[in-house]
Amino acid sequence: MVVHQIGEALRKHKAELGYLVSLEMGKIYEEGLGEVQEMIDICEFAVGQSRLLNGATMHSERPFHRMYDQYHPIGIVGVITSFNFPVAVWGWNAMLAAIAGDVVIWKPSSKTPICALAIQKIIAEALRQNNVPEGVFNMIIAKSSVLGDNFAADRRIPLISVTGSTEVGKRVATIVGKRLGKTILELGGNNAVIISKHADLEMTLQSVVFGAVGTAGQRCTSTRRLIIHESIYETVKERMVAAYGNLLTRIGDPLKKDFLVGPLVDETAVQNFVNAIDTVQKEGGKLIFGGTRLSGSKYPSGNYVVPAIVEAENHYSMVQHETFAPIVYIMKYSSIEEAIDLNNQVPQGLSSCIFTENLVEAEKFLSETGSDCGIANVNLGTSGAEIGGAFGGEKDTGGGRESGSDAWKAYMRRQTNTINFSGKTALAQGITFDF
Ligand code: UN1
User: Is the pTM of this model over 0.90?
Assistant: First the structure.
């Protein structure tokens, strides 16, 4: 009921909230709306899921015993979110936690506090109407450096969910791990697209360009590497350069309809972009498009950049590293096995995809010796996952899953129950213990 009403309240304020996300974070308005839609969708998903918090029943080895699992609320859930999805990621976590019967303490990114305040205000009405104390959804706005480690160290918070960089995730997980608390970690990605000679190139380019420059390359699912079959490498390279060329006039105010690429979130993000371009060139990379900062009255915040395409080798330190900015590294392969190896040979394991119309290649990519990522797609890009699937990845991405499928289980504590209605004592494993 409450989650349903929260979803309705968000739907009512979709336009304003989408605008605010765009204004504060810098993604284009269309993507701001998409982000709010993700929250509405997760509310609907959670409402349905609330009737399906089911455990298994299994037959007991002992006569006249019944055995089953059930899931109880875990208690207080700490939710740490990043600036790039300032509202949707709260939705993924908070709505599942709510249907699990938990209380949420949200620590939004200190770069996007206004979006968080707006959410708190929007949901307050739904809470009031149902006599739910506002404290079921709490919020702390503070820089991590000010908040310190107390939040992660607090034993009253059995579960902390972190969506952010691998660095932040490792830090929080170490503190929570010391007290044997639980974490859900959805951390950095280094997402590759394999472009086979059997790919439909029109469709591939559409997806790849959105994946690489959408949200100005600031999604954890952004496309960071293109692994291109050698026979079509030059063609793809030329077409990418042409597509990026067309984008030059489409970089600007994210609130205006004409533009597809907004600014980076702040000066530090621009510095990281500039440094990455510089370092990768020192390592041997060849900058073939963009890579510069834009200035002038069209770019008021000074945080606008031209998305970059760099020819590089997979082992370069910059290619192995997630720079949260629009840089795509391109490289060649000759066999599908080699392409899969390149896909996997990075520390992160979030999202991946292959563009091919060849069934054998697609199946190889999805097999146990294929992509090692939490998300592996065929003929669609690395970003823009639907909420219905479990979202997260392996290795430095942290292993946690948020959002759909059975991600709800992480927000609950599991219990195995055995009930004896035989009227006798019966030990498992056939042990007798008479006295
Ligand atoms: C993120 O960048 O942290 O799959 C989340 C996507 C979005 C979520 C991204 N649905 O790109």
Answer: yes
